[in-house]
Amino acid sequence: MFRGLLFLLVTSQISSEAERQKASDIRVQRDLHELRLTQLSKSARNEIQRMLEELKSKDRSIAQLKKELQAALAASQVGAGGGCRKERKAAKNSAQQSHEVSDLW
C-alpha cells in the first residue's frame, strides 16, 4: 500500500513539474512572439516613413521641373516669334512626360 501511495505521489510531482515547465515554455514563446511583433511594427513604421519622404521628394522634383518647363515655354514664346522648332518640340515632350509622371502620383 505504501508503495502505491509513493508511486502516486511521485507521479503527481512529475506531472506537476511537467505542467510548470510547459507553462514556462509557453510564456517564453509568447514573449518571443511579442518581441518579434514589436520589431516588425517598428520596421514597418520606419519603411512607411522612408517611403513617404521619398514621395515628398519626388513631388518636389516634379513641381520644380514643371516650373522650369513653364519658364522655358514662356521664354521661347516671348523670345522669338517663330522660335526654334526643336526647342519647342523638346519642351512639349518634356511637358507631356512631366504630366504622365504626375498622373502616376
Which features characterize this protein?
mainly alpha; 105 residues; rod-shaped
List the helices and strands and how they pair.
Blueprint: H1 2-79, H2 85-104
Helix pairs in contact: 1-2
- Oligomeric state as shown: single chain
Q: How far apart are the termini?
A: 84 Å
Percent in strands: under 5%
Total count of strands: 0
**Morphology call:** rod-shaped
- Radius of gyration (CA) equals 36 Å
- Poorly predicted runs of 5 or more residues: none
Q: Mean pLDDT, rounded to whole units? A: 87
Order of helices and strands: HH
Query: Helices and strands: which structural class?
Result: mainly alpha
Can you count the helices?
Answer: 2
* Biggest sheet overview: none
Q: How much helicity do the residues have?
A: over 70%
Task: Offer a concise description of the structure.
The chain is mostly helical. 93% of the residues lie in helices and 0% in strands.
Structure, described:
This protein is mainly α and 105 residues long. It starts with a helix and ends with a helix. It has two helices and no strands. 93% of the residues lie in helices and 0% in strands. It has a domain at 8-73. The longest helix is centred in the middle third of the chain and has 78 residues, at 2-79.
